[in-house]
Each structure stands twice: as structure tokens, then as C-alpha cells.
TrEMBL record:
Location within or outside the cell: Cytoplasm
Enzyme Commission number, as recorded: 2.7.7.3
Catalytic activity as recorded in UniProt: (R)-4'-phosphopantetheine + ATP + H(+) = 3'-dephospho-CoA + diphosphate
All residue ranges annotated as the Cytidyltransferase-like domain in the record: 5-133
Gene for this chain: coaD
Site (Transition state stabilizer): 17
Family according to the record: Belongs to the bacterial CoaD family.
InterPro entries assigned to the protein according to its UniProt record, in alphabetical order: Cyt_trans-like, PPAT, Rossmann-like_a/b/a_fold
Protein's UniProt keywords contain Secreted: no
Name by which UniProt lists this protein: Phosphopantetheine adenylyltransferase
GO BP: any one term: coenzyme A biosynthetic process
């Protein structure tokens, strides 16, 4: 059985992430989306909220599950018996960093290979940080994130503004 892990912060999940998820789910028997809980960062959404959003946007993809994790990705992949790590590449500038990670992960666990999927052209510019920036100023994000989470993103910023 081919088990893949697609890791990320997904803060929030974008249409670019969803594109990678859909394509990766066709390459493996089971795709686990690993939502990173990074104690050194302050995400907009909690890991629980990010898991919930991903569950909503992937509910029609039967071979996808969502899990939050902490620590090293290669350890999480090993724990889940994954043999593939899926990473998305938006631009050539992503490649050098991702290549170093892939080589390090393979050195730490030779049973796990990394597969790179290039982002579809229509999402090549898109990132969660861009979405957060637009939403923080009340800009329209409907063309960047799945429809089912748009209101939640706006509500989070409204709540932050109210203090």
C-alpha cells in the first residue's frame, strides 16, 4: 500500500493546497494531510481549526485523512508507515529549500521518498500568507480559498479587531 503524507501549516488552506491534495490523492492509496503544530510560530488558526477546515474541503476525497502532528516530519511519516512525502513547488525558488529537506529526510529514513508536484499555473502565486494579508485588510479572498472557509477567515479577523 502506498501511503503519502502531505505536510504543511495550512494557515489557512488555499485553493493551491487543495489542488495539490486532489492530485496527490490519485498517486497514493492513502493520503494523510499532516497539519504542523509548530510551537515557535503563532498561526492565525489553531491546529484544531486547521484540521477542521481541511476535513471540510476534503470530505469528498475518500482516501484522504487529516492529522495534526508535532516534531520531525520524517518521524511522523514513519509513525504512519508512509513511504512518500508530497511537497508542492510554486516556483524555482522553492526547489532549493525543498530539495535540502527531501535529502535530509531521506538520509534520516531511506524508506521515505519525497515527490514534488508543481503547482498548477493558476495558483503559482498563491500562499497562505498572501491570503492572510488580504483578509487582514478586509480584501476579497473568495478566489483564493475554498468557499466553505471564507466566512471563518473573515470572522477570525473581525474577532481579532474587536480584541
Amino acid at each position: 500500500m502506498r501511503i503519502g503524507v502531505y505536510p504543511g501549516s495550512f494557515d489557512p488552506v488555499t485553493l493551491g493546497h487543495l489542488d495539490i491534495i486532489l492530485r496527490a490523492s490519485k498517486l497514493v492509496d492513502h493520503l494523510i494531510i499532516g497539519v504542523l503544530k509548530n510551537s515557535s510560530k503563532s498561526p492565525l488558526f489553531t491546529s484544531e481549526e486547521r484540521v477542521k477546515f481541511l476535513e471540510l474541503v476534503t470530505e469528498d476525497i475518500p482516501n484522504v485523512t487529516i492529522e495534526a502532528y508535532q516534531g520531525l516530519l520524517v518521524d511522523f511519516a514513519d509513525e504512519k508507515n508512509a513511504n512518500v512525502i508530497v511537497r508542492g513547488l510554486r516556483a524555482i525558488t522553492d526547489f532549493e529549500y525543498e530539495l535540502q529537506l527531501a535529502q535530509t529526510n531521506h538520509k534520516m529514513n531511506p524508506k521515505v521518498d519525497t515527490v514534488f508536484l508543481t503547482t498548477s499555473v493558476e495558483y503559482a502565486y498563491l500562499s497562505s500568507s498572501t491570503v492572510r494579508e488580504i483578509a487582514s485588510y478586509g480584501g476579497k479572498i473568495e478566489q483564493f480559498v475554498p468557499a466553505c472557509i471564507v466566512q471563518s477567515v473573515y470572522e477570525k479577523y473581525n474577532k481579532l479587531r474587536r480584541g
